[in-house]
């Protein structure tokens, strides 16, 4: 292209694309060059002023900068300002939460709404990993957004669950030799029938007899409804404790029920969980939560309203 350059004395590079489009070799404007060099000066300033250069991978050391500024420190300072503002603005509400019982809080509409509003982040941090956002539940963990309560759904019972924690318990009817394989199949069919309202059908009479023989009624009640909330599942409401709580596939439901009947819940041998047993443990939050005395009350009110607590 340079050999056919119509403007050899113009100062172009010889790259001619069109008579009106060619690459010139003029120096950049002064303002552009000053900005370019200023950028290098800013790099030096930035490197000296801010923490920039990591020194070692193992210790996490780095250059501190002239001011020692870090984003973490700025965050802590801003958070303290926000926290101090909240303490000042809502001090009366927090004092009421600390002084009142959960029953009293529940009866005070304004205070109840405040407890719920200030519990959402707390629930997300400490509860949602197991119970899902908004209490919707995750597989193998109880749903809190319905009215099915294993340990009772009144406000005091919910508070007790948070304070004490809960440990599920059911013997392994198959592994312990209480029931034969045939009896396990029969009682499994009966439990599924109970959930469908067919527990009194003649086809499930054998399973009903096994249900009584195996002492299932001691915890789950004669008709599949526990007489008192003590961790036993209601077998008539089609809400399942393990797997998908609202499972509708009959084969999967039967498999879940048979597994629990056979291997139980939290069954151990020689200090270890037996293979196949379901693990159902909720820790106490008395030591886990910051400001536990107040925050347990706050969370109790929040959970109570999630599922229309009793």
Structure notes:
- The chain has 310 residues and is mostly helical.
- 46% of the residues lie in helices and 6% in strands.
- The chain has twelve helices and six strands.
- It has a two-stranded antiparallel sheet.
- A hairpin with a 2-residue loop joins β4 (268-269) and β5.
- α4 packs across α12, α8 (181-195) crosses α9 (205-213) and α8 (181-195) packs across α11.
- The chain is elongated and about 110 Å long.
Q: What is the end-to-end distance? A: 88 Å
Q: How big is the Rg? A: 34 Å
Helix content range: 40-55%
What is the mean pLDDT?
86
Shape: elongated
Strand content of the residues, in percent?
5-15%
Structural class: mainly alpha
User: What is the overall number of helices?
Assistant: 12
The spatial strand order of the largest sheet comes to 1-2
Low-confidence stretches are none
Number of strands: 6
Largest sheet: 2 strands, antiparallel
* Topology pattern, helix = H, strand = E: EEHHHHHHHEHHHHEEEH
Keyword list:
310 residues, mainly alpha, elongated
Please write out the topology:
Elements: E1 12-18, E2 21-24, H1 30-49, H2 71-99, H3 102-107, H4 109-117, H5 120-126, H6 128-131, H7 155-164, E3 166-167, H8 181-195, H9 205-213, H10 217-220, H11 250-263, E4 268-269, E5 272-273, E6 281-282, H12 292-306
Antiparallel strand pairs: 1-2, 3-6, 4-5
């Amino acid at each position: 292209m340079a050999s056919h350059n119509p403007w050899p004395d113009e100062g172009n590079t010889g790259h001619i694309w069109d008579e009106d489009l060619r690459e010139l070799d003029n120096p950049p404007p002064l303002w552009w060059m000053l900005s370019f060099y200023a950028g290098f000066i800013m790099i030096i300033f930035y490197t000296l002023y801010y923490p920039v250069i990591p020194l070692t991978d193992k210790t996490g050391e780095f250059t501190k900068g002239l001011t020692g500024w870090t984003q973490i420190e700025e965050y802590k300072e801003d958070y303290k300002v926000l926290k101090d503002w909240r303490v000042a603005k809502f001090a009366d509400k927090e004092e009421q939460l600390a002084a009142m019982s959960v029953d009293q809080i529940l009866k005070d509409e304004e205070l109840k709404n405040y407890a719920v509003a200030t519990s959402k982040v707390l629930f997300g941090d400490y509860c949602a990993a197991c119970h899902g956002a908004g209490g919707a539940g995750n597989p193998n963990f109880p749903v809190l957004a319905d009215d099915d309560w294993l340990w009772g759904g009144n406000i005091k019972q919910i508070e007790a669950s948070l304070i004490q924690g809960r440990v599920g318990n059911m013997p392994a009817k198959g592994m312990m030799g209480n029931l034969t394989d045939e009896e396990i199949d029969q009682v499994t069919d009966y439990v599924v029938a109970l959930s469908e309202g067919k527990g009194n059908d003649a086809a499930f009479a054998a399973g009903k007899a096994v249900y009584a023989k195996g002492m299932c009624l001691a915890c789950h009640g004669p008709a599949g409804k526990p007489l008192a909330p003590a961790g036993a599942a209601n077998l008539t409401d089609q809400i399942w404790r393990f797997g998908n709580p609202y499972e509708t596939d009959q084969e999967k439901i039967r498999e879940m029920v048979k597994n629990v009947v056979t291997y139980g819940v939290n069954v151990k041998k020689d200090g270890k969980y037996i293979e196949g047993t379901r693990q159902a443990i909720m820790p106490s939050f008395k030591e886990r939560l910051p400001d536990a005395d107040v925050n347990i009350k706050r969370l109790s009110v929040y959970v109570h309203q999630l599922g229309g607590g009793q």
